[in-house]
Amino acid sequence: MTVNAPDLLDKLVQRIERPSAGAVAAFLALLVAVPAVVFWLTDDPLWRAIIAVESGGNSRAFNPATGAAGIAQITQAVVDDCNAILGRRRFTDDDRWDTRESLLMFHIYVNHWAKRYEKETGTEATDDVRARIWNGGPGGYLLPGTVAYWERVREHL
């Protein structure tokens, strides 16, 4: 079978020039949604305050005592928890060093446990609850030791 390159190229150009209505709608939705999600995630004042406290914004920060790494000082337990929440191995240890991956893990972890908090308490998870969950784990909002952490985070809000 011979392939006529000009005909093949012409068919490809026709598809690009006349995409289906569904393809156009999907493309436009992505143009709107992706920047909005990225903006929403990175413009989170709590995220900015937490990275100020955790690492001073240093994506190469490492705590040898806890093994916490990266801009958000993520531990292996948080990586494992995020993968369990997602039901698949999405994140690796190395992702803790990547600011974008750390941001995603932060939101997955905190939002998951904040929703659990809201379900159990019947009250909305505030920034102090979310920060204390980040610092002390799923039940961190109950731990007296996370109060001082919240105070430091609040100074950066």
Question: Percent of residues in beta strands?
Answer: under 5%
String of helices and strands? HHHEEHHHH
Quaternary class: single chain
**Quantity of strands, as a count:** 2
Sequence-ordered SSE layout with sheet pairings:
Elements lengths: L4 H13 L3 H22 L2 H10 L7 E2 L4 E2 L6 H11 L12 H23 L5 H10 L8 H10 L3
Helix pairs in contact: 3-7, 4-5, 5-6, 6-7
In short:
This protein is mostly helical. It folds into two domains: 1-43, no CATH class; 44-154, Lysozyme (Orthogonal Bundle). It is built from seven helices and two strands, in the order αααββαααα.
Could you characterize what this model shows?
With 157 residues, the chain is mainly α. The protein has 2 domains: 1-43, no CATH class; 44-154, Orthogonal Bundle (Lysozyme). The chain contains 7 helices and 2 strands; from the N terminus they run αααββαααα. The protein has helices spanning 5-17, 21-42, 45-54, 76-86, 99-121, 127-136, 145-154; strands spanning 62-63, 68-69. The chain has a two-stranded antiparallel ribbon with strand order 1-2.
Characteristics:
2 domains; 2 strands; mainly alpha; 157 residues; globular
